[in-house]
Write a structure and sequence with these properties.
single chain; Arginase, Chain A; 11 helices; 7 strands
């Protein structure tokens, strides 16, 4: 299949900066783009420069009162409420402008796909999946994922699958569309008993006409490459095949990595690279090749996120980077100036083993209870047999 991939990027997106030592530091984006350029992944690619999302677009998801609070917060402080001014969501100058620019980047990517100018589009600055209609949450001011999905629904797209591989539950997107049968949300995340935000149980399956359209795979802490990939392939292909989306939207947080300081899954960068290739295959097989790719979490800022997301960009552009490729010396020289005492990686691999045993409903691995719980909760709602191991 021939694919045209648009990349949304401008250094102005680095202005979404929660300040100080906040975990969501924009250096991760800067280092990613520098690494991708240094490896030649972006050769010949002219990035699309986003503009700020208009209020009318944000209000497809967020309340007018919340937008007003975000605008007022830099001068009025935490008294504005709405989850602003907390340790997770500190107030910063031009917060509305910066957050609406991130949302505008995801809208720009969505527009490329809906218009037919591209069938893949990437906004690594996006993926702020925790923001709710009336409040900030989990480092997220505006929910660009939901804003882009809502825009596509208003512009001719009837069925959208949203697949979230961040280590944290994609709660904001699930909440936005839990009653909308046009959107299936699938989230693979660390079990909510062990990680914020404490939601994303398999029993959360959507409401009303959308019952069965919310899908949650709650993975045990310590799940590594083989178990994570086993769960992905045991749940996702069957549902996408049945749902038949016109667009696949993926939130590709890099925080399931074993070095991430805020969570407890154990993927390698090799497992993440394999996951990205699976997402590409899913888009081609089940969504007519239409793939909207967003960033997300990731707090191992120097060692993990740049490599994981460079592999993601390369996958989207069909310029796959060999796992054994060395990290260029010029990138290491630059990164060493901002990484402090962090030991920087020298290779695009962690040496991870990505082979996995496909789930067939009989063999038993540590991840299998999570797989069974999800399949039992959701598959019958789509006329699928929970114990059938076929994709």
């Amino acid at each position: 299949m021939s694919n045209e991939c648009a990349v949304v990027w401008d250094e102005s997106l680095l202005s979404y900066d929660l300040g100080g030592n906040h975990p969501l530091h924009p250096v991760r984006l800067d280092l990613t783009m520098r690494l991708a350029r240094s490896l030649g992944v972006l050769d010949g690619v002219v990035p699309l420069v986003p503009g700020q999302a208009a209020d009318a677009e944000l209000e497809r998801v967020h309340t007018p009162g919340y937008l007003a609070a975000v605008r007022a917060a830099p001068t009025e402080g935490p008294d504005v409420g709405h989850g602003l001014g907390t340790d997770d969501n500190p107030i910063f100058d031009r917060m509305h402008e910066s957050a609406s620019l991130v949302a505008g980047g995801s809208l720009t990517a969505a527009e490329q796909i809906v218009s037919g100018r591209a069938n893949r589009a990437v906004n690594l600055a996006g993926g702020l999946h925790h923001a709710m209609a009336d409040n900030a949450a989990g480092f997220c001011v505006y929910n660009d994922c939901a804003v882009a999905i809502a825009w596509m629904l208003a512009n001719g797209i009837d069925r959208i699958a949203y697949l979230d591989i961040d280590v944290h539950h994609g709660d904001g997107v699930q909440t936005a569309f839990r009653e909308d049968p046009r959107v299936m949300t699938i989230s693979l995340h660390q079990h909510p008993h062990t990680l914020w935000p404490g939601t994303g149980f398999p029993t959360e399956v959507g409401e009303g006409a959308a019952k069965g359209e919310s899908v949650n795979v709650a993975l045990p802490p310590g799940t590594g490459d083989a178990g994570w990939l086993r769960a992905l392939h045991a749940v996702v292909p069957s549902l996408l095949d049945t749902f038949a989306p016109q667009v696949l939207v993926t939130q590709c947080g890099a925080d399931p990595h074993r070095e991430d300081p805020l969570a407890d899954l154990a993927l390698s960068v090799d497992g993440q690279r394999a996951a990205h290739r699976s997402l590409r295959s899913f888009a081609d097989r089940y969504a007519m090749g239409n793939w909207l790719i967003l960033g997300g979490g990731g707090y191992a800022l120097h060692r993990v996120v740049p490599r994981a997301w460079t592999h993601l960009l390369a996958t989207a552009l069909d310029r796959d980077v060999a796992a054994e490729r060395n990290v260029p010396a010029d990138w290491i020289a630059h990164a060493s100036k901002v990484a402090g005492n962090v030991a920087l990686p020298t290779s695009m691999t962690d040496g991870g083993e990505t082979a996995f045993t496909p789930w067939d409903g009989t063999a038993e691995y540590a991840v299998d209870p999570a797989i069974r719980d999800t399949r039992n909760a959701v598959f019958p709602l789509h006329g699928l047999e929970p114990l059938d191991g076929r994709d």
